[in-house]
Amino acid sequence: MTAKAGAVVTGAGRGVGKLVARMLVERGYTVLVTDVDEASATATATEIGAIARVLDVRNDVAVQAARDDIVTRAGRLDVWVNNAGVLVTGPAWEQDAATRRLMIEVNAVGTINGTVAAIEAMRGHGGHVVNIVSLAGITAVAGEAVYAASKHAAIGFSLSTLADLRLAGVRNIDISCVCPDGIWTPMLHDKLDDPAAALSFSGTLLQPADIVTAVAAVLGKPKPVTTIPRWRGALSRFADTFPRFGLRAIPFMVAQGRRTQRKLSDASSGRRGTPPDGS
Ligand SMILES: NC(=O)c1ccc[n+]([C@@H]2O[C@H](COP(=O)([O-])OP(=O)(O)OC[C@H]3O[C@@H](n4cnc5c(N)ncnc54)[C@H](O)[C@@H]3O)[C@@H](O)[C@H]2O)c1
């Protein structure tokens, strides 16, 4: 067993996952950077000083093999971050079955596969599973119905499994869900002209570093659900508690999101990938 504990991040080739993996390396973990895209996993791992492994989170056998790999290399698995995600916008009836299945399988089944594999390796010494969900896991999101369904599944599964662990007397394995508003990553870079993605732009457009800060915070102090920013989390919960109010508010939020999309499109035309704050 090496001095450093093991950590796995899924979908870590780019975006949020890449920065979370970097933070874990900086904290001294032996990190497995996994992604379905082998080239980005390899490039990221080389850049941040981690180990690359191609992994499609939909494949439970491959997820278990990645888990065994980190245990062999690091001696112990302490942190598993289920971050891999896919967003295809549009009403569900305009999407083909394969597209709908893709979102459910990556965002929900992938999170289940990772969590279960991690728990098996964490039994005894304990550990922490961090699931990157979304505010779409809390309330309705017009234009992102199947994505919202997959994220509701991810959060329902996470909290229920946490309850099962506690009922089984397991107190040293934590599951923390991090639920951000829209984040300026490649997931949204191509959606400035997409009306169906308006709600992702209707609140505070976050930077990936904001999510890294939240993940670092829950690693220090596990928390079942963290919403970012907190006010949007409160609004999402209110809309979910009073769905008629929530549904009435959606057209106004879509209009707000479209305004932000147009502003960003004007500001960043020719500069896609540059954060909207210009940093
Ligand atoms: N960007 C946003 O607005 C936003 C908002 C809230 C939550 N999230 C969530 O944050 C997480 C990170 O997203 P991001 O914004 O960095 O997006 P991103 O598109 O930049 O990164 C997602 C990563 O997941 C990988 N991936 C896709 N399918 C996979 C699979 N089957 N197996 C393994 N990896 C796979 C991709 O290759 C990519 O590297 C996702 O779970 C996403 O749903 C994103």
Automatic annotation (TrEMBL):
Alphabetic keyword roster: NADP, Oxidoreductase
Protein name: SDR family oxidoreductase
Annotated region described as Disordered, given as residue ranges: 258-279
One Gene Ontology term of the molecular function aspect: oxidoreductase activity
First-level EC class: oxidoreductase
One of the Pfam families matching this protein, by short name: adh_short
Stored PANTHER family: DEHYDROGENASE_REDUCTASE SDR FAMILY PROTEIN 7-LIKE, RETINOL DEHYDROGENASE-RELATED
InterPro entries the record matches: NAD(P)-bd_dom_sf (IPR036291), SDR_fam (IPR002347)
Enzyme Commission number(s) from the entry: 1.-.-.-
UniProt record similarity statement: Belongs to the short-chain dehydrogenases/reductases (SDR) family.
